[in-house]
Design goal:
The structure is a homodimer of 357-residue chains. Chain A is mainly α and 357 residues long. In chain A, helix 9 runs antiparallel to helix 15. The first copy, chain A, starts with 17 loop residues before the first helix and ends with a helix. The radius of gyration of chain A is 20 Å and the shape is flat. In chain A, strand 1 and strand 2 form a beta hairpin. The interface between A and B is large, with 56 and 56 residues.
Chain lengths: 357, 357
Amino acid sequence: VTANATTSPAAAGQSVTAAGQARDRLLAAAEHKMREFISSERFRWSSVTPQAGALVDAVSVIVNAGGKRLRPAFCLSGYLAAGGDPGDPCIIPAAVALELLHVCALIHDDVIDESSLRRGVQTVHAWHTDDHRRHHWRGDSRRYGESVAILAGDLALVYADRFMNDAPATVDAAWGELRSELIIGQHLDVAAAAEGAADPELARWIALVKSGRYTIHRPLVLGASIAGRPDLGPAFEAYGAAVGEAFQLRDDLLNVFGSAAATGKPGGLDIEQGKMTLLLTLAIKRDPHLRELVSAPSDDQARLHARLTGAGVREDVEKHIGMLVEQGCEALAQAPMDSEWRDELANMAHQVAYRDR
Amino acid sequence: VTANATTSPAAAGQSVTAAGQARDRLLAAAEHKMREFISSERFRWSSVTPQAGALVDAVSVIVNAGGKRLRPAFCLSGYLAAGGDPGDPCIIPAAVALELLHVCALIHDDVIDESSLRRGVQTVHAWHTDDHRRHHWRGDSRRYGESVAILAGDLALVYADRFMNDAPATVDAAWGELRSELIIGQHLDVAAAAEGAADPELARWIALVKSGRYTIHRPLVLGASIAGRPDLGPAFEAYGAAVGEAFQLRDDLLNVFGSAAATGKPGGLDIEQGKMTLLLTLAIKRDPHLRELVSAPSDDQARLHARLTGAGVREDVEKHIGMLVEQGCEALAQAPMDSEWRDELANMAHQVAYRDR
């Protein structure tokens, strides 16, 4: 279990604008707070009984393996763009809560997808399945590994919530919505893949909920509401919907074309699992015959992959991503915020739309 | 999926004392609030997209199948015993939150234990595994059923938390502790069974955390703290530790001797999974040879069961339960509360220690 260098947090010291640097300083503070909390929990439980620290370790490995920290970054940006005081630490717990919620979602998702790699390290369930096997413990190794992962995800969710309790009460509604939406969206994703529902409308709705709202819109709104500026909600919603769609399309492209070494997770899973991705909805518009291939038996997966990687689809999708980024930036054109934040949010839109992991 | 009549909530209208009746009225109000919330969530998500209501349904089936509602009952009793106003609805959300947290724990536990029956109805994962098989959907049926259950448990946990957000902020610390302890306790249970750790001290600690604190002590303290009476903490802690141990011993006895028809869940799982139960720790004191049988390969399970059901062990355990109930009641003897609440909490101690399901 070693961390991949490419998956270290996108945190401190990478921005070139003053706005971005102010955000990166808060992001570094949130990172510090999160790791400090996890260490203190580990210490505390290990002193009660030695084995009790093991579950905290499982959470810790995924936290420490890095990741893009996108949701904290959007939350802190929403706060600063709304005029929040960069010296007031009240925003930090909300940023930590968003990342720990994401850690829960990743740990549980990896069980659901039977994925072996996350952020360049072994997933929690795979690691504990191996551990069980190596020690020749009683019972089924896979069952054991998945049980540890279910409970580790639960613990991360509870930790997330403990942090959000320290945020001002104005966030309660947005935090409630964000979490229910995330979980309902995950379930729809699982159900649609199982039922082979090649429904582009449903695929778009799932992407809107899971990427647009969960990753971008709601974190921005949480930040803005802590700064006392709920009026920025509509602009952030429009920005989040467009940039979230671009984010999801990039995710789909990375899943088909990216390498596991760069993304820190296995490629090709979506097609394997018959998921109706946003990428597929666009490809189907070009070539309606693809629709049948998505819900076809798995032997046809190779054909689907060949069609997707063939000429045309990729260029189309890149064009669409460019349009969405533009649309996201336009959504902020009239929003009441400093122009340096309009620029920084445009930077962020480009970063999520043109990332390579 | 039909509910077993014996598992309807122990709620309204069963108590004979005035104190118990006041609690039962609040319990009925909490029950109403919880079911109303679940219905409104179901309606809301189904209107967004038809499939989105399915995950709420999964939570709903376990909620509506009943159960003992012990944690809400202790929370409401702690509130009233501490002099809380029975007409003030501020206590209701906390009681609902405790039950929804428990629903999360049950749904995830049943995946971990591969259990097929809960509260007399099919468990969430078993139901959705069957559903997948019946519809000939894509992918592995068990994987699908367990994925739905993981997400349904997550949703119940988020709902629990949304309710607790509506409780006064004085509960935050106790709520944080209660949830972390529950999850860490579950993990230790899983780990100890896998490692075949026949460690009576660890078994007692797990029982203290999972039953004493989670089921009795912390719900009582939550209720008392909402009534502004944290001074009752130490008395409730001592009561909870003793009555919780009695509760757990009864659970172990029901697991070995009880019928699935009465308990609404399968029997014998603990022995099958090599769990070091409290019952076993007492049996080992009588007959040290049993210790080896616990960590022995599974062919010896029948021998272990025969020894446990043999003369002597059961009587010993019943005696021990009687002593614990007495000890729990004594812990309240000097506590600053009305004598009618001392009596009602003694009733409750008897109810949990001598229940048949």
